[in-house]
Structure prediction request, 65 residues.
Amino acid sequence: MRAAILPYPGDPYLLNYWLTFFDRFWADEIDKLYIYLNSTIEPQMVYYIRQLCASRPKINFTYNP
Prediction:
């Protein structure tokens, strides 16, 4: 199994941009991507980020406020 970890500060726009390139270039290279968010951000932003990740089966998103 090939996996990657993305420690993530919580900027939803940067993640959306990053995931665009993940889908295009990197998604076929790994089996699982773990995104770990450890920041205090608005609940609406956490929901948005979860939605971005939920549509991608290779991504496991974890939020720890």
